[in-house]
């Protein structure tokens, strides 16, 4: 078992005692940091940055050099899987991701395959092992993937969407086609996350960013079922240590019981659910990660600190809480405000663990 100097993130996910509440931020590497923008320029395109293990490691570590974070997250993207399936991914400035060959029919869906984790996605595993080496055991490394439903929204729509018109029409009119896509994606995510774990990821998070746009029935059928299959297929121990699994459905507050029943270790919460309610509902089964409104980082450092205090008090005493934002940090946020947030968690949370 490799040595880890700071394991409070992994301990909290397993609800073991900690000295203070661990903290990290979704999307902590990237867009809001000037040093990221500089490295991104050197790399060329965003995908070139993801494919360069030295530069991917450099940007993973940038937020840790600024702030006393308790975890690092692999610098990559959820769209690496559909890219490896040959859909022709491009990132257009100001437009977000675009696929040249979206999936619109059963004939398209039948061409999808589980990518090879060595030849097609080996660059991600190389980034994981390089980051682990560069972290030198300081904090654990989080691996991640998109959920099948969230990945399918991009693959079917062909880009980001506000209405989900194309994928929802497919869901209602051609459910078999969508299930075929989601099946191949679930098998791909299992292989992808297990490969990240083998390469050195010490916890994994599944980002179901768009699960919340579904009805309760459709959420269970088209998103949760596939995440359940993934949780069952993951390696839960590696290198003598448990590998915790975090499920995050943005907008999933009303489904926490069903999410906890998948057998995952922790649930990511967005800011539309009160963390005390969530703890009362599922706190005996899973740890909770969250859930400060990312917009609070636009406010003053004093107001940010007050909000951190409120959320800590709401969760209350005892382990099982990983402090985080309820979704990714916004690109316009002043990095000093992110620093005030993290400092507040480190200073105010000890009293809840005595
Ligand atoms: O710091 C980290 O969290 C690590 C890296 C990370 C990125 N994307 C880097 C990235 C992670 C965990 C993601 C996840 C991701 N990617 C999600 C789920 C998380 C969430 O926020 O809900 C989604 C939906 C995507 C898809 C995606 N990638 C979009 C829509 C975009 C364009 C808009 C945007 O977010 O900037 C990307 C590009 C992307 N992924 C960037 C970064 C740093 C910006 C690229 C650039 O530098 O121009």
List keywords for this structure.
354 residues, seven-stranded parallel sheet, 11 strands, TIM Barrel, 15 helices, alpha/beta, two-stranded antiparallel ribbon, binds coproporphyrinogen III
What does this structure look like?
The protein has a single domain, classed as TIM Barrel. The protein contains 15 helices and 11 strands. With 354 residues, the protein is α/β, with parallel strands linked by helices. The mean pLDDT is 97. Helix content is 46%, strand content 13%. The relative contact order is 0.14. It is globular and about 60 Å long. The strands form 3 sheets. Strands 1-4-5-8-9-10-11 form a 7-stranded parallel beta sheet. It has a two-stranded antiparallel sheet with strand order 2-3. Bound molecules: coproporphyrinogen III. Coproporphyrinogen III (CP3) binds at residues 26-31, 40, 46, 73, 75-79, 91, 96-97, 144, 160, 207, 209, 328.
Portion in beta strands: 5-15%
What order do the helices and strands follow? HHHHEHEEHHEHHHEHEEEHEHEHEH
Number of domains: 1
Strand order of the largest sheet: 1-4-5-8-9-10-11
**Attached small molecules:** coproporphyrinogen III
Radius of gyration from the alpha-carbon trace, in angstroms: 19 Å
**Percent in helix:** 40-55%
Class from helix and strand fractions: alpha/beta
Please tell me what the overall shape is: globular
Catalogue the unreliable spans. none
Number of strands: 11
Overall pLDDT: 97
Level-2 CATH architecture: Alpha-Beta Barrel
The major sheet is characterized as: 7 strands, parallel
Q: Give me the CATH fold name.
A: TIM Barrel
Spatial separation of the terminal alpha carbons:
29 Å
**SS field, number of helical segments:** 15
What is the CATH domain class?
Alpha Beta
């Amino acid at each position: 078992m490799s040595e880890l100097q700071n394991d409070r993130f992994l301990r909290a996910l397993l609800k073991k005692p900690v000295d203070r509440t661990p903290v990290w931020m979704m999307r902590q590497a990237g867009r809001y940091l000037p040093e990221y923008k500089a490295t991104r320029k050197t790399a060329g395109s965003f995908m070139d940055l993801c494919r360069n293990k030295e530069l991917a490691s450099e940007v993973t570590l940038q937020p840790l050099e600024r702030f006393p974070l308790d975890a690092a997250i692999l610098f990559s993207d959820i769209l690496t899987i559909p890219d490896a399936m040959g859909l022709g991914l491009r990132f257009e400035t100001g437009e977000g991701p675009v696929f040249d060959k979206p999936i619109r029919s059963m004939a398209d869906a039948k061409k999808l395959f589980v990518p090879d984790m060595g030849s097609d996605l080996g660059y991600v595993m190389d980034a994981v092992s390089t980051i682990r080496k560069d972290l030198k055991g300081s904090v654990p490394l989080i691996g991640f993937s998109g959920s099948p439903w969230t990945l399918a929204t991009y693959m079917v729509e062909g880009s980001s969407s506000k209405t989900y018109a194309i994928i929802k029409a497919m869901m209602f009119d051609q459910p078999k086609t969508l299930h075929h896509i989601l099946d191949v994606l679930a098998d791909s995510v299992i292989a992808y996350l297990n490969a990240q774990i083998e390469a050195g990821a010490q916890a994994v998070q599944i980002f179901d960013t768009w699960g919340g746009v579904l009805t309760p029935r459709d959420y269970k059928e088209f998103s949760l079922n596939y995440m359940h299959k993934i949780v069952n297929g993951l390696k839960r121990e590696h290198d003598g240590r448990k590998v915790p699994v975090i499920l995050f459905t943005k907008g999933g507050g009303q489904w926490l019981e069903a999410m906890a029943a998948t057998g995952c270790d922790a649930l990511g919460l967005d800011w539309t659910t009160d963390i005390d309610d969530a703890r009362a509902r599922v706190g005996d089964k899973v740890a909770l990660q969250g859930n400060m409104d990312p917009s609070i980082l636009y406010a003053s450092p004093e107001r940010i600190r007050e909000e951190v205090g409120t959320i800590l008090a709401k969760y209350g005493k005892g382990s099982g809480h990983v402090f985080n934002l309820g979704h990714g940090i916004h690109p316009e946020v002043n990095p000093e405000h992110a620093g005030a947030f993290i400092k507040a968690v480190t200073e105010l949370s000890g009293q809840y663990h005595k």
